[in-house]
Amino acid sequence: MSKKKRLMQGNEACSHGAIYAGCRFFAGYPITPSTEIAENMANLLPKYGGYFIEMEDEIAAMGAVIGASLGGGKTLTATSGPGFSLKQEHIGFACIAEIPCVIINVMRGGPSTGFPTGPSQSDIMQARWGTHGDHPTICLTPSTVSECFTETVRAFNLSEKYRTPVIVTYDEIVGHMREQFIVPEPGELEIINREKPSCGPEEYRPFGTWSNVPDVPVLAPFGEGYRFHVTGLNHRDDGFPTNDGKLIDREERRMMRKVNSQIDDIIKIESINIEDADIGVFAYGSTARSAKRAVKMARENGIRAGLLKPLTIWPFPEKEVFELAKRVKAIIVPEMSLGQIIFEVERTSKGKCDISGINSVDAEPISPSMIFDAIKKFK
Questions:
Q1: Distance between CA atoms of residues 57 and 76, nearest Å
Q2: What is d(CA 33, CA 106) in angstroms, rounded to the nearest whole number?
Q3: Could you tell me the pLDDT band of residue 3, with boundaries at 50, 70 and 90?
Q4: CATH number of 269-377
């Protein structure tokens, strides 16, 4: 991939980002509006010595991704709402077994089959709480075609570094829009590969041989002389199940801590005109694009508005929202749902300002004028 300006669809850029990051295995099942990712991976992977497999369903696809990752590969699957629901049990397995992999969820209308070709942002809480039990979640939310590329690369880096599944979720508009962007040259973006054990197979413990990152164990690839047990049960450091409550508690807390203690490395935010803002907007995905235009409209009309756009939605950027809430009269939260992330904004603003939502589930984007009208109410 030479460094030149390319016209790409969001889903296409996501595929190229995965290849750039070193992904060499994709398993999936076609589902609108993410199918172009599978199509592009089927075309690209053989050219880079990789493997593409279309599985019989979303559950099997997630299982194949887990297995290939345990074999040492960087792995990807892509889906939309109904398929994301089916993947949840295996995502939970990947969490407790600490298996790195990347899951793309291109959001569409729901629930159930819903509106397959319409945009939505109603899976954002499912990304955090979709699988059961206490578990860490890293979820990235690009809003441009360029970000579909770079955030997919970052997703693989975070997954490999923290030995955890990472979700990239964006709505149908971002997935299907086309924009020009400059494709990074090889080596231009940092690529992180999982650390391999320096000890021999006899000394290795899959959950007790530590990497250079705090609380993250080293994952040895099967097929390179290391044999170890992997289970969805709570386990000892050798991977075998345990009923020891103190050990279970310790390991659960470690899994959460390995992500929550690295917030500054994981959270990424874009801010526009928030330094002197009287009114803030918190928006992600395609809605952030409308919000960016609405903030510009407000500034042109003498209203000091600013935008906080998260590229990491989980862990939630609590510190950044609280700092904004202390400075503004209100934070407006537009989202293509009947209200999900607004509750996190309310929680983390701690009553410092008014919080107002704009909610839409009519399969149409939230327009800049809708956000601008909400801004004017607080001027």
A1: 15
A2: 6
A3: low
A4: 3.40.50.920
d(CA 312, CA 361): 23
> Right CATH number for 5-182 from 3.40.50.970, 3.65.10.10, 3.40.640.10, 3.40.50.620?
3.40.50.970
Rounded to an integer, the average pLDDT of 255-283 is 97
In the chain, ranges of CATH 3.40.50.920 domains: 269-377
Pinpoint the residues of the chain covered by CATH 3.40.50.970. Answer: 5-182
Helix (H) or strand (E) holding 38: helix 35-44
Pick the closest to residue 182 from 7, 23, 41 (CA basis). Answer: 7
- Helices assigned H by DSSP within 164-300: 172-176, 245-260, 263-266, 285-300
pLDDT for 379: 81
The pLDDT assigned to 1 comes to 42
pLDDT band at 186 (very low <50, low <70, confident <90, very high): very high
Q: Which residues of 196-217 are buried (b: 16+ CB within 10 A; e: fewer)?
A: ebeeeeeebbbbebebebebbb
